[in-house]
Amino acid sequence: SSEVELSAEERAYLTAVEKGDYAGVKHALREAEVYYNMDVNCLDPLGRSALLIAIENENLEIMELLLDHGIHTGDALLYAIRKEVVGAVELLLSHRRPSGEKQVPSLMMDSQFSEFTPDITPIMLAAHTNNYEIIKLLVQRKVTIPRPHQIRCDCVECVSSSEVDSLRHSRSRLNIYKALASPSLIALSSEDPILTAFRLGWELKELSKVENEFRQEYEELSQQCKRFAKDLLDQARSSRELETILNHRDNDQSEELDPRQCHDLAKLKLAIKYHQKEFVAQPNCQQLLATLWYDGFPGWRRRHWAVKLVTCFIIGLLFPAFSLIYLLAPKSALGRFIKKPFIKFICHTASYLTFLFLLLLASQHIARTNLHMQGPPPTIVEWMILPWVLGFIWAEIKEMWDGGFTEYIHDWWNLMDFAMNSLYLATISLKIVAYVKYNSSRPREEWEMWHPTLIAEALFAIANIFSSLRLISLFTANSHLGPLQISLGRMLLDILKFLFIYCLVLLAFANGLNQLYFYYETKASEEPNNCKGIRCEKQNNAFSTLFETLQSLFWSIFGLLNLYVTNVKARHEFTEFVGATMFGTYNVISLVVLLNMLIAMMNNSYQLIADHADIEWKFARTKLWMSYFDEGGTLPPPFNIIPSPKSVWYLLMWLHNKLCRRGQPPGEGSHKCENLREQHQKRPSWPKDKTDWPFCKCCVSFGNQCPRVWRKRGEEKNPRCSRSSVKFLASDGLGSHVICWCWSIVFSEVQGQHNRLAGSIGALPASCC
Questions:
Q1: What is the pLDDT of residues 503-521, one digit of tens each?
Q2: Which portions of this protein are annotated as coiled-coil regions (predicted)?
Q3: DSSP string spanning 59-119?
C-alpha cells in the first residue's frame, strides 16, 4: 500500500517525541483527545511510531506519557528488547498486565509493518540478545520457552507446519534453539546450568548433522554451550568447590543413596560422555585430576626423569607380588596401595608388556617341535599365554557388563580388543580340533589348504599384530606421543573415507578389464614352470577373473605389476591398446588423483589436531585416567581370573540375599537405599513432596554417610548453617553477566552420634542476584 502522508499536527507531534519535548507531546495528546485532529499512532517515513521513537531515544518519561494515553503498543516490547533498553522493557511489562496466567502483554503486531516474525516471543528475543537483566525480568514473570519437537517428529503440527512453509518451520526451530542456548537464560532458568549446557550442546551437535542447511549455525550454538560450561568451571576458587562441581549428580542419579558413589566425578563423566572437551581440558579440572592420579606420590612431577623411570620399573617388576597381596589381603596397606590409579596403571602396563614378551618368545619357536606334526600339542610358552588371554576376555566381559553394550562399542579400542580376543579364541579352538583330529605326522607340503593348524597359525599371526598395535593406546598418557596417537586415529578415519571412493574406482576398472581379457585366459600347463597368476616369475592371466583383476589392480599401486600383462598371445593389437589404455588410466586416477587427495586429507586432519593439540590430548588422557579411577578391575591379567576371597564373599552374600528373599512377601526385601529413603521421608521435618525444596539435590559427604539437608522455602536459617555466595562471572562476547550460585555448608547430626559435613548447591532465585 502507498505511504500515508502525515499532517502538520502529526509531524509536529513526532518531532516533539524525537526531541524529548514532554510539554509539547502532552499538549498534542490532549488536543488529539479533544479535537481528533491527528492519529496518535501515526508512523514516520521510517515506519516508527511515537512509542518506538521514545524507546529508541530511551526517553522513559515520554514513554509513560504515551502509554497513559492509551497509545497502541504493537511490537514495542520486542523493539525495546532488541534495543536492550531495560527501563523501557520494565515499563511495558508493568503498564498493562492481562488477567489470567499470562504476565506479558500480548503482541498486537501488524504483519505488514512488523520487523519480527510471528514465532519470535519476548523471551526468545531477549535470549537472542543474551541480556541478563531483561531475561531476569521475564523469567520472574514465569515466562518460558517451549522445547521444540524432535527433528524427526511426524505429528500433525510438525507435518502441517513443514508443508505450509518449510523454511519458516526450520527457521523457527533454529530461533528456539538459539534462545535456549543463551548463557544468561540457562543460568536463570536451570537448576544445574552445567548439565543443561552439556545436554543442549550435544543435542545441537546432533541436530547439525541432520539439518545440513543450518549446520554452521547449530555448530556455533553448540560451541557456545561448551564455552559457557567451561566458563562456569573457571570460577572455582578452591579444590573443595571444584570437587563439589565435578562430583555433583543430577536429580535422577542423586536418588541413589550409595555412599561409595559420592566422590565418583559424576559430572566429569558426563562431560566425557557429551564430548565437552573444553570443560575437561580446563586447567582447574586437570589440576584436580592430576592430584587424584598421582595420589600417594607427592611431588612426582618435580622428580628427575631417571627417578621416575626406575620407580615405574621397580613397581612393574613387583606387580605379581602386589597382585597376590591384594588377592589375600585387599584391605591391607599394600592392598590399598595397588588400588591407587597410578599404581594400577603401571601394573596393568607391566602385565601387558609381559604378555607381548611371551608373544615374542612364541614367534621365535625357542622350544621347537616336530614341524610336520598335524596336531601339535601346546608348547610351554603357549601354555603361559593362555592365562593372559583368559584374563583379557574376562576383563572385557566385566567392562561390557558394567558399562553396557552401547557404551562398550562406542570405544574403538574395545572393538579392537574384541577382535583380538576373538582371534585368540579361534586359534585355541582350532588347535584343540587339530590336536584331537590329527595324531600323525605328515610333510607340511602335503597338508590341505584349510587344515586347522594352518588356519590357527594364520589367525595367531594376525592376533599378534593387533596385540602389538594395542600398545599405542598407552601413548595417550605421554604429552609428546599422545597428540601423535590422536592424529593417527583421525587419519584412519580419513583412510576409511578414501577407501570408499577408491573401492568404487577399483571395482569399475576391474569389471572393465576382466570383461576385456577373460576370453584370453590360459591354463597353468601353458605357462612357464606351470605357474599361473601375478605371483609367478613371469606374470600372466592378471585379468582373467574378477578376483584376480582386483588383486592385480591393487598391487599395481605399489608398482608390482608389469605392463606386459596387458598383452595377449593372439595378434589382437586393438585389444592390447584398449587394455593398456584402461590400465594406464586407472593408475593415473588412483596414484595421481586419489592418492594425493588422501595425503591432503591426512595432512588436514593432522593440522586440525595440531591446532588444538593441548585440548585434544588432555581430553584423551582424561578418558584414560578415568578408566583407572573407577572401582573394580584392580588386578591385571592373568591374576584377575583367580577368584579372590572378597569375590567369594560377595557371591555368598548375593546367594544369601536371593535365597532369603524367596520366602518374603513382595516389598520386604527392598533395597537398603529404598528403606533409607523411606525413613527420611517419614521424618516430620522432611516433606515427602520434593518439589517444595528450592535447591537441587546435590550432596557432598566427607564421611561414610551421604546425608541430605533440606530447608523449606521461607523457613528460618538454621543457626548451625553458614552460607557463602560464590559469584560466577561468565562472558560470552555479548556482555558480562553475573551468575549466582549458593554453597551451603550445613552441619547435620547423623544417627545421633557423628557430625558430617554436607553441602547443597542450587540456583538461587533471580532476586538474590
A1: 999 999 999 999 999 988 8
A2: 204-231
A3: -HHHHHHHHHTT---TTHHHHHHHHT-HHHHHHHHHH---SSS--S------TTT-SS-TT
